[in-house]
Design goal:
The chain has one domain: Ribbon (Cystine Knot Cytokines, subunit B). By secondary structure, it is an alpha+beta fold. The N terminus is likely disordered. Helices cover about 15% and strands about 35% of the residues. Strand 5 and strand 6 form a beta hairpin.
């Protein structure tokens, strides 16, 4: 009997909190939530990367790189990530060395899978660290 009453109370409370649904955050609110973590060289909301922030990479040389474009799911922000990885991954470059992608980490947001809104009635988002390629280098082979 007590469990049934608690269940009814829980359903009532959840229904009252969620009856309208959570308000989605705008792109500007999501950028603000990322703070300094929004890096225009690597991130875009619509595949139109800002031309004022070109991504520098080595197209020629001992270890060449290439641009990679990743599209994340709609539960992530930003949706589009641009980064660099070795075009010649694993190729021998000098004696005892080979080409390897240099990794970096950027912050992105992921929409929480919850029925509860934040204190202001908005969807809840959490910050995640995402590994991306930042370049290509000739490095000592490791076993």
């Amino acid at each position: 009997m007590i469990v049934e009453r608690l269940l009814v109370l829980f359903v009532f409370l959840v229904g009252s909190v969620q009856s309208e649904g959570c308000v989605p955050l705008s792109n500007q609110q999501l950028i603000k939530k990322l703070g300094n973590g929004f890096i225009a060289q690597h991130m875009s909301m619509d595949q139109n990367f800002d031309g004022n922030y070109p991504l520098q990479y080595n197209q020629h040389g001992i270890c060449s790189s290439k641009l990679v474009f990743d599209q994340l799911s709609d539960k992530h922000f930003p949706r589009f990530i641009r980064h660099v990885k070795c075009d010649s991954e694993g190729d021998k470059c000098l004696t005892g060395k080979s080409c390897h992608t240099v990794n970096a980490y950027i912050n992105i947001l992921e929409k929480e899978a919850t029925i509860f809104c934040d204190d202001d009635g908005y969807e809840q988002w959490t910050t995640l660290s995402l590994k991306i390629g930042a370049g290509c280098e000739c490095a000592v082979d490791t076993p």
